[in-house]
Amino acid sequence: MSAFLPPLLFRLRNCDLRLLLSARWILLAGLITLLLGCSEHETSRATSPTADLIIDNARIYTFAWGEPDGEGTPAALAPVSDSNWAPDATAVAITDGVILAIGSSDDIAPLKGESTEIIDAMGATLLPGFTDSHTHIEELGATLDDVDLKGVADEAEAIARVVAHVDANPVPEGQWIVARGWDDGLWADRYPTHDTLTAAFPNNPVLMDGTNGFGAWGNRLAMEAAGIVAGAPDPTGGEILRDANGEPTGAVRNRGVALFRSAVPPLSDERLQRRLVNGLQLMADAGYTGVHHAGVDSRLMAAYEALAERGELSLRVSAMISGRDKPLMQEWLTRGPQRLGDDNKLFVHSVKGYYDGSLGARGAKLLEEYSDREGHIGVSGEEYGFFTKEISAMLQAGFQINIHAIGDGGNREVLHFLRDNFALNPAMQKNRHRIEHAQVVHPDDFALYDELDVIASVQPPFVAEDKVWTEDRIGHARSAGAYAWRSFRRNNTALAFGSDLMGYDWNLFYGLHSAITRQSTDSEPPGGWFPEEKLTTEESIRGYTSGAAYAAFLEDETGTLEVGKWADMTLVDIDPFETVAREPAALLNGQVLMTLVGGKRVFDATR
Ligand SMILES: [Zn+2]
């Protein structure tokens, strides 16, 4: 075991550890300086600090050994030989929410005091805490109060689910019923009409919201409340679907969804906060220690700030200011990027821009027409609700700009937008700007990502789920640049992984499986979809750990397991390295056993 111990630990054991204790809150850099100054001959017995918590008998991968190269070859210090990975520690000691020491069980034993709690991991695998870099937490939390339509096969099943929910939880006449989660990508060519829904619910407005936010339908009362009536104009960037007589059918596309959503009365502050708490708890249950919330408007920001102030955020949240909320951008232009609350849980340093639509609903902006719709290239930019002037101002004020871009046209236009801004102020290029999804990229443009230091914030589940229609939309040749994660790495582009929940499953084993195999859960296609773009197990885990930390400016504090960093960790029942080497599909059977944020258990399957 000790062959893999980080040299830091040896030094730590020979130090005057009182110094270490009083200084444990300082940044890692300071800690290293302090430790390096310790004498090899001093004894620590009398002054040993005690750990609050020790996790022992774990297969720990610290990821503290350095990044792999662009082809996925591990760094020289990585604990791997002949493709066989081995854990580089078995025990970790935690005090005051940070890692006090990490190494072998023998090394950690002296840090055990009378009040130290010991967790016997019984051979389970401990990884740096996972972060989902692209989430919509209020939608996740809403699943606990709204009707969940995830996985419904058709209109009849969707309506039956709403009927069952309302039978079980009666709703007074006139009150809105919101259901969400039907697949607006898969149903793109067969959106339901209002008739059956109106017949089932004549006395309540009902909204049936799609899982990706690009399609919705409602009953007669919902349509009336949303102004979706005969003669109503299509909203900018959206479409009201109409029948042969020009009457609205009840369904809307793209920004038409906002007509319905804005007709639903707002939640109380208390209920909105509860939704965020519930959503974060569902993420903790799934093994995540942090999330990046992609698009937080004024109300959500107020809810997050209230929760941070009361110390009620369980996970670390990087809240991206919505680039569609001009008053909120104006407010933060004055405040500047900052972290809130006194327990390092809420970070506001970025703005989410919305540049084009989705590929499934053919809203993504392509350079050439869609393969399955002649003459159609999608919508982008101001036409899609991108506020060029306001977002440029946020960029110039030092914010990180995270722009949703899906099509190869959308990606190129966003890269040029960033390049134009950097020309005005070259220092702003270093603010780790991100393109969210970075889904279809023209071969010429990978170099531009590198040149402009843009991070690709990508979602591994997209490959598993989208590959069945991607080639219909853009053909085979363009698909070579779709979800092209190896191309990004080879071109020196940092990756951050996420799920874009609710649209996609956020199970971390599912995400890893998709990135590593480029297959769906049925192991299709054999060998993987465009297998040359597969990533290694190490790279895939890093997408959710060190990569996600870098994308949120938190790499000095989380993302790897090292002395002085936050004790954010995920305990799982399988060793991903060993599992992938043996049978990649077995990854999908993995279970999260425990999630710790700052040493605190936010999920524990063993209790
Ligand atoms: Zn999203």
Structural commentary:
With 607 residues, the chain is an alpha/beta fold. Among the domains are: 138-263, Diaminopimelate Epimerase, Chain A, domain 1, CATH 3.10.310.70; 355-528, TIM Barrel (Alpha-Beta Barrel), CATH 3.20.20.140. Helices cover 32% and strands 20% of the residues. It is built from 21 helices and 26 strands. Strand 5 (91-95) and strand 6 (98-103) form a beta hairpin. Residues 134, 136, 294, 500 line the site of zinc ion.
Task: Record the SSE blueprint.
Blueprint (H helix, E strand, L loop, with lengths): L6 H7 L3 H6 L5 H9 L16 E4 L2 E2 L19 E2 L2 E2 L5 E5 L2 E6 L1 H4 L8 E4 L4 E4 L1 E6 L1 H6 L4 E2 L6 H14 L8 E6 L12 H6 L5 E5 L4 E4 L1 H6 L12 E5 L5 E7 L2 H7 L5 H17 L2 E9 L1 H12 L6 E7 L3 H10 L2 E3 L5 E9 L33 H9 L3 E6 L2 H17 L9 E4 L8 H6 L3 E4 L2 H19 L5 H6 L4 E3 L10 H10 L19 H8 L1 H6 L17 E4 L3 H7 L9 E6 L2 E5 L3
Helix pairs in contact: 10-11, 12-13, 16-18
The chain binds zinc ion.
Key words describing this protein structure:
32% helix; binds zinc ion; alpha/beta; 21 helices; 607 residues; Diaminopimelate Epimerase, Chain A, domain 1; disordered N terminus; TIM Barrel
Give a brief rundown of this model.
This protein is α/β, with parallel strands linked by helices and 607 residues long. Helix content is 32%, strand content 20%.
What is the CA-CA span between the terminal residues? Answer: 30 Å
Number of helices: 21
Instruction: Report the strand count.
Output: 26
- Tell me the name of the CATH homologous superfamily of the domain at 355-528: Metal-dependent hydrolases
Give the integer mean of the pLDDT values: 92
Bound molecules: zinc ion
The appropriate CATH architecture of the domain at 355-528 is Alpha-Beta Barrel
- The share of residues in helices is 25-40%
